[in-house]
Amino acid sequence: MSTILDGKAVAARIREGLKTEISQSGSEPGLAVVLVGNDPASEIYVRNKGKAARAVGMRSIEQRLPEDSRTEDVLAVVKELNEDPAVHGILVQLPLPQGVDRRRVIEAIRPEKDVDGLTQASQGALVEMTPGLRPCTPAGIMDLLDAYHVELAGRRAVVVGRSALVGLPTALLLLSRHATVSILHSRSEEPWRVAREADVLVAAAGRPRLVTRDWVKPGAVVVDVGIHRTENGLVGDVDRESLEGHAGALSPVPGGVGPMTIAELLKNTWTAYRGLR
Ligand SMILES: Nc1nc2c(c(=O)[nH]1)N[C@@H](CN(C=O)c1ccc(C(=O)N[C@@H](CCC(=O)O)C(=O)O)cc1)CN2
């Protein structure tokens, strides 16, 4: 049997801890989420973020802009939120519509309110390993591994995918914990040869069921970051059925990394509120 890395349960514990801390402090951190356009998955995530924020005692602010918004329109909203003392964390939901310049919008967020950890200031802090707000999904992966006491120092970790949102920062966080890290990507030749060496394999390629049994060393810990909506329901980047009983541990989709992403967003908002890094 493979151990199931139960992100839903770990995230619930994190949220419970935050709720207690926030209520004991008598404070009300504010989280602003900006949604541009009508992407149906983004609608769900933004709704869930607002619900989760309110449930731990935070103020949730939602700003919606139409699909045909210009970069300047989004920048104006971010600027307003930057100036608002009741807003401690700002997140711009991704992806943005085609006409909006993602880099300019993200860069407009004040680093101390960058609860998504995506500004160049936050990314620089991650590279330098100085205090800063870390991107939510990578931070969630680390907390999930820690919750199951997965040893990282000196072990071989392989990340499949090199996105700025997940793959790259996850590799850096694993490196900061002294794992020996490789990154695989769409141009890697025979990626399964490298993947098979992993003690810890993180699949963040954005390709449904890419990682099959022949990519995985028996007993390895496999973290699935993918979420794909198919006619048979949600599937990840990992072909879960072929890994059951082969992997030592496996994060499910749904119920693995997804809930951790939202819990980390709340953690970052609480950190931003306290001004502690
Ligand atoms: N600004 C950002 N945009 C996006 C991020 C991000 O971290 N920052 N990540 C993803 C989407 N995402 C958060 O925004 C996210 C994805 C999935 C889940 C989640 O809880 N998934 C559930 C399944 C829910 C469902 O889809 O029905 C699960 O895995 O159990 C939370 C957050 C892209 N955009």
Describe this structure in words.
41% of the residues lie in helices and 17% in strands. The chain is an alpha/beta fold and 277 residues long. It has 2 domains: 26-113, 3-Layer(aba) Sandwich (Rossmann fold), CATH 3.40.50.10860; 136-258, Rossmann fold. The strands form 3 sheets. A 6-stranded parallel β-sheet has the order 1-11-8-7-5-6. α2 (40-55) links the parallel β2 and β3. The longest helix is centred in the first third of the chain and has 19 residues, at 7-25. The mean pLDDT is 97. Ligand LMY7XDAE binds at residues 44-45, 91-94, 116, 136-137, 227, 253-255, 258-259, 261-262.
Give a quick summary of the entry.
The protein is α/β, with parallel strands linked by helices. The chain is 41% helix and 17% strand.
Helix content range of the residues, please?
A: 40-55%
Count all strands and give the number: 11
What does the overall shape look like? Answer: globular
Q: Low-confidence spans: pLDDT under 50, at least 5 residues?
A: none
The CATH C-level name of the largest domain is Alpha Beta
Q: From the 3D coordinates, which CATH architecture of the largest domain would you assign?
A: 3-Layer(aba) Sandwich
SS content category: alpha/beta
Bound molecules: the ligand Nc1nc2c(c(=O)[nH]1)N[C@@H](CN(C=O)c1ccc(C(=O)N[C@@H](CCC(=O)O)C(=O)O)cc1)CN2
> How many domain modules?
2
* Widest sheet, order of strands: 1-11-8-7-5-6
Please, how many helices? 10
Domain Tetrahydrofolate dehydrogenase/cyclohydrolase NAD(P)-binding: 135-273
GO biological process, one term: L-histidine biosynthetic process
Function: Catalyzes the oxidation of 5,10-methylenetetrahydrofolate to 5,10-methenyltetrahydrofolate and then the hydrolysis of 5,10-methenyltetrahydrofolate to 10-formyltetrahydrofolate.
Pfam families: THF_DHG_CYH, THF_DHG_CYH_C
